[in-house]
Amino acid sequence: MLKRKTSLGILAVLAAVWLAGCEKPPVQEQQAAQNAVEEARKAEGPKYAGKEFNTLQDSLKAANTEIATQDNKFALFRNYTQAKGTLGWVSTSGPKVAQKARDTKEQMRKEAEAALQMAQTAVDTAAAKVAAAPKSKDSKEEIQLLESELEAMRNSLQNVKNAIQ
């Protein structure tokens, strides 16, 4: 009877140690990190913050690999600390990458608008000079050619303006 109580006690202690040692995978942290990467992707991170986005994505992959490695270990020896740290970094860095992408996109739009304005000014200046050019029998064809080129430039500028918007 004493042996039976002792055996049951030892078994209970082993079960408690086993349950305490079974660390759970960081599912919530993994989902939060995935959401952060997706937010950065929606903000066009790959296009406007490529290096940072790739680092973010690589870190998520590394964390997922570490989780898979820990999942394959015996339950008592699982340790998700490294994966949790990486996932935490991804979760906090994702919004920063998304913001950088939005900022870069806005800066590029402003630069494109400034270049468009300069081109528009150049076309307007050229049009004024063509309009003021002396018209003679010999220059009539050349002026018509310049006017058609100016019209093509105006159309191109309109296409650029539409693309920027």
Structure write-up:
By secondary structure, this protein is mainly α. It is built from 6 helices and no strands. The chain is rod-shaped. The mean pLDDT is 87.
Short description:
This protein has helices at residues 2-21, 27-42, 45-48, 50-71, 81-132, 140-164. With 165 residues, the chain is mainly α.
Give the arrangement of secondary structure elements:
Blueprint: H1 2-21, H2 27-42, H3 45-48, H4 50-71, H5 81-132, H6 140-164
Helix pairs in contact: 2-4, 2-5, 4-5, 5-6
What keywords describe this structure?
0% strand; mainly alpha; 165 residues; 6 helices
Distance between the termini: 85 Å
How much of the polypeptide forms β-strand, as a percent range?
Answer: under 5%
Total beta strand runs? 0
Number of helices: 6
- SSE order, one letter for each helix or strand: HHHHHH
Biggest pleated sheet: none
Helix share bin? over 70%
Report the structural category. Answer: mainly alpha
What is the CA-based Rg, rounded?
Answer: 33 Å
Whole-number mean pLDDT: 87
Poorly predicted regions are: none
Shape: rod-shaped
